[in-house]
């Protein structure tokens, strides 16, 4: 389920450069020799690897990896080492690291600054390879296929002097390298490993001749056969091109934005993401200091209806805030207490609360393991409450001892279902009673009226092929809502100015709406360095944006509001995310940068 997940991580690429003169460090200096090696560290919840080596030309090579983001070989520059000190920059992500080197050279203690300083300590990787490789050590290559996708996966396996196995995986066609494995086990002919960053697991057997691994890859509740063959050499992962940026201009006025976007989107409209052959369309709605504009391109019209995918989570978060304000639930209430009696047993210790679900800190997986759609083109239609409750009964509601951010569609689906259970109604009816009704959002709903159905623009997948609309049942709270640019802009305006909201008469929930919106924006947990989360909304510290995105099989969305700058915008497209991500994300970020007067990520292909 591609209901959207992107946390502003810079696009990175694989490249190794030698640093000399003012940008480098002479290899023959004692400082250079002391720090040469591989290091590992943690930046908040993210693993980071640092590589410092001496090249054959006697220069220092430096690069970092971000395995959790699938990035490897991000080059350093401006490397400087003194007696017990080290600093370098990483231009691709606009970051710097400054710190000290321990006397034995095994620990680098310092601060990473990418707009918001964060402590980052590196310790030397002391891996010592086994004198004789195990029977499973080496390079392996296989292809994962399900009729729609074909992805090459490359596995690197090695063992240390104690006989412990290690591995990492490359998703060659997705330009991802060095995804770390965990729980690597090899006994007899049985071999298995996990890839935590993608919630994947492989288990199978080594052939008698030692050249084939035959097994099954499991991810998101689905299982596919994956056979890997031994390789003499690895396939190089072709790096993605770094993003290009259009030159900054003074903050664009809302009256001028359409003209600016026509110029910035010219390439995409001619032969790119919105070209005539793609069937693609886009609606953009923006407000700055109370002045609104809605415009569209391609096959979309200003009043077209789209699926908004995971932007639905922000509505579910606001529904929770409303019911807390009304005294119907409370943030620390266990979700178990809202479910039908006997659905799941009470755990011995701490259990998952409503707030844990709303901040993506419940520890629940991205998807339930009993998700087996009958129709891949409409995968959520047959996942009912009974399926969700069966999963929860098996999984349990015990809260892990330590929880970090983990994006979970099943978590938000559970939250929406639990709130509806407490209210004694359905999720669509609760949505109307608590949010869309009081806000007057007459074009925002799950089951469309005949009039709105007539304006529902046909969807396309990431390859621009026709895509079926998605109907969500038990997981509605994670991504079932459909809407228009004008309605979504009205929703963002309410978030931008809660104090000015004038609820529609006849809805009791209107009385708590302003206070619930304010409460909805309180920052409650960390996501990644420089990014925090409120109730579903992500908050970027350096820009001041609250944002969320979404993507279904044939649609994508991106919305943000900035209280400091008093502006907001939403982008809706009828093209789902592709391998390289969502075009809606790029357009949304571009608009944000134009409104802020910053260089804007290019929209050309």
Number of beta-strand segments: 32
The name CATH uses for the topology of the largest domain is Beta-lactamase
The tally of structural domains comes to: 3
Question: Helix fraction?
Answer: 10-25%
Give the termini distance in whole angstroms: 25 Å
Mean pLDDT: 88
Total helical segments: 13
What Rg, in angstroms, do the CA atoms define? 25 Å
Report what the structure shows.
This protein has 605 residues and is an alpha+beta fold. It folds into three domains: 21-124, Beta Barrel (Lipocalin); 138-231, Lipocalin; 245-601, 3-Layer(aba) Sandwich (Beta-lactamase). It has 13 helices and 32 strands. The strands form six sheets. Strands 4-3-2-1-9-8-7-6-5 form a nine-stranded antiparallel beta sheet. Strand 10 (138-145) and strand 11 form a beta hairpin. Helix 4 packs parallel to helix 7 (409-423) and helix 4 (312-325) crosses helix 8 (427-439). It is globular and about 75 Å long. It starts with 29 loop residues before the first helix and ends with a strand.
